């Protein structure tokens, strides 16, 4: 169940990034290609979570969530991210932020549940 919820979160974040890439981010240097990689990576990671029972997709989900959410936080700061300044506004932004934090928490819980005493 935790893996399925984690997969749903990373897939949702990936889908949002693909939507935003299609909606204009593809024309932005550096960040545009990163949105495409993030979108495809999120969808592939979701499949791996459901198909492979090893710990690696869970660790990847933690990294994915931290990196993606971290980049958004930096982009909303005064300095921005590679010239892009985002805001904490809009359904795509909040959907991504929530699903990325949830992916980190859910993947961590799945590791704790699947590997008790081995961490």
Account of the 3D structure:
The protein has one domain (about 1-115). It is built from 4 helices and no strands. The relative contact order is 0.19. It is mostly helical. It is elongated. It has helices at about 1-20, 30-50, 55-75, 90-115. Helix 2 (about 30-50) packs antiparallel against helix 3 (about 55-75).
How many independent structural domains? 1
Shape category: elongated
Element pattern in H and E: HHHH
Beta-strand level of the residues, as a percent range?
under 5%
Kindly summarize this structure in a few lines.
The chain has four helices and no strands. The protein is mainly alpha-helical. The longest helix is centred in the last third of the chain and has 24 residues, at 91-114.
What are the defining features of this structure?
elongated, 119 residues, mainly alpha
Layout: helices, strands, pairs:
Elements: H1 2-22, H2 31-51, H3 56-75, H4 91-114
Helix pairs in contact: 1-2, 1-3, 1-4, 2-3, 3-4
């Amino acid at each position: 169940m935790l893996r399925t919820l984690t997969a749903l979160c990373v897939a949702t974040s990936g889908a949002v990034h693909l939507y935003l890439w299609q909606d204009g981010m593809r024309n932005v240097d550096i960040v545009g290609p990163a949105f495409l990689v993030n979108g495809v990576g999120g969808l592939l990671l979701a499949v791996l979570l459901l198909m492979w029972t090893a710990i690696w997709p869970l660790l990847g989900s933690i990294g994915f969530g931290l990196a993606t959410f971290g980049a958004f936080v930096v982009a909303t700061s005064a300095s921005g991210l590679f010239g892009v300044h985002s805001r904490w506004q809009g359904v795509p932004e909040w959907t991504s932020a929530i699903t990325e934090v949830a992916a980190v928490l859910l993947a961590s819980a799945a590791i704790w549940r699947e590997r008790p005493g081995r961490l």
